[in-house]
Amino acid sequence: MRAALLRIGTLLISLVLASVVVFVVLRLLPGDSAGTSLGVGTTADQLEQLRSELGTDQPVVTQYVQWLGQVVRGDLGTSFVSRLPVADLITQKLPITVPLSLAAFVMAALVSVPLGVFAAVHRRGPVGVAVSAVSQLGVAVPVFWVGVLLVLVLALQARLLPAGGFPRTGWDDPAAAVRSLVLPVVTVAIAMSAVMVRYVRSATLDVLDQDHLRTARSLGYGRWHALARHGLRGAAVPVVSILGIELATSLLGAVVIENVFALPGLGTLLLDSVKARDLPVVQALVLGLTAVVLVTNALVDLAQRAIDPRLRLSKEVAA
Amino acid sequence: MTDLTTAVPAATGAAEPRPRRRARRLPPSLVVGAVLVGLVALVGLVSLVWTPYALDDTGDGARLAGPSAAHWGGTDRLGRDLLSQLMAGAGNALVVAVASMVVAGVLGVTVGVLAGATRRWVDVTLLSAVDLLIAFPTLLLAMLIVTVRGASLWSAVWAIGISGSAVIARVTRVNVARVLREDYVTAAHAAGTGWWGTVTRHVVPNVWPTLLVQLMLLGGGAVLAEASLSYLGLGAPPPQASWGRLLQEAQSTMLVQPWGAILPGVAIVVTVLGLNLLGDGIRERTDPNLRGDR
């Protein structure tokens, strides 16, 4: 319990540190955001007015504290470009990005966990060798290329699914919305599976080598039976950790892949804002996505301790 | 004293027949990886002095043509030779990989050695910074840097290198701490070797193979990350050839000229696969525990 509280404490510290990093990188690197957002032909008065509006004429520490206070209250500021509240912009995009990354994650986990375990148990069989070769290749494939190839074959040539875009009516037309998300989901899932299969396979291999599993086999348990009774719990610890990392990856994969399929989600918003130097939006999105990654990491740690009592003991002693 | 040391090997050499050269086959992944990386590096170097066509040469106006004897990879929407663009892209990928490795290597090793070999509070402070950096996704760091500094090859390299340095620092620190606990280091210390001498003479040679593996994997990751960034329009700007941007430009016309969208992807996969295999191969060669079926 004490260790769990400690983990939550570290999470809070990392969140604050991440916010400092985001804030400092955007403020202290050369370049004046107020000047950039107004463009050429701006008078000094206009510039001054915008600066005081944005608060960039205040000392950096004051700016940071003000910003953090607003963020905690749910006020993410106003976009330089659209003049809309950043929180609203983000909320509008969630119905595309969240289903996309969650569906891709679930699909990848459902494929790669069984496949990885199977490939480890039959490591010298044809399936085991094939799985490990394909996943070695798969790790080297850029996710956007998978998307481009799927569009080429399944959308442009076979005309089975739309090549991109999202229905203007959104989820009011569920069938059309789902159809436009099929290819993006499959794309992200394929890229993630390559990584996950490798981790699951090597975690299972580690367990298979352990003494207690050999003893179980020598007592007459079959390969799968021994693994199911004595191995899976041990393998679950590294697998949970990779699932956690991959949940974050699926979100970032979605960010890239939305641009391949012209989906108006968080990724497209982030990219457009980066290109337009729309500071408040970039700041909120980068911090938000990083926070999701950090929280996932903390949850993974807690889950691992719940699964493996040895971990609880050693960490508690160390703490 | 001198007589003794020179006499010993000679004596054993005479007593038993010298074993033939130790038959230790190179791991296949090392060979394949080295060949692939060597190939890309060669193409990249050649592209600096020669490409079949100039990069901005729109030729006889044959736009979006398929592969032919004159244009092996076909032409793009402006009639430029695709093969020449791909070759120049290899040079770009090479620069990204090497520069990211250097940034990550210098930063990571410095932080790792400082954390592993100095006082405890330095260690704790640096480690928490490294942990935060590991959790901070490369793509987001790159986007932050691009927002402020604009899209360029070097924005990408800095982002990838800084991100990668976290892993290098971790690996360095663990290994430095392990080596420093060895008896021979204590012995060297007792014999009067200073901190710097210990680090350069004992720590670095012992940690180097592990680092080389990590650097190769990082190079593969760097090529992938730069391709993603330039696909998104955040990498090297137009006159500079980049596989990611070639792919992005070809996407809208790929029903007519699919090779423009296929070949840059193949080039990326070959390069990343080569670097990953090279890393795995070095690991297998230097770490006997990992030999076999991992």
Please give a quick description of this structure.
Chain A is mostly helical and about 325 residues long.
Question: In the CATH hierarchy, what is the class of chain B?
Answer: Mainly Alpha
Structural class of chain A: mainly alpha
Following the backbone from N to C, one meets helices and strands of chain A in this order, namely HHHHHHHHHHHHH
Q: How many distinct beta strands of chain B? A: 0
| Major sheet summary line of chain B | none
The tally of domains of chain A stands at: 2
Radius of gyration of chain B: 24 Å
Mean of all residue-level pLDDT scores of chain A: 81
| Major sheet summary line of chain A | none
CATH fold category name of the largest domain in chain A: MetI-like fold
Mean pLDDT score of chain B: 81
Helix content of chain B: over 70%
Quaternary structure state of the chains depicted = heterodimer
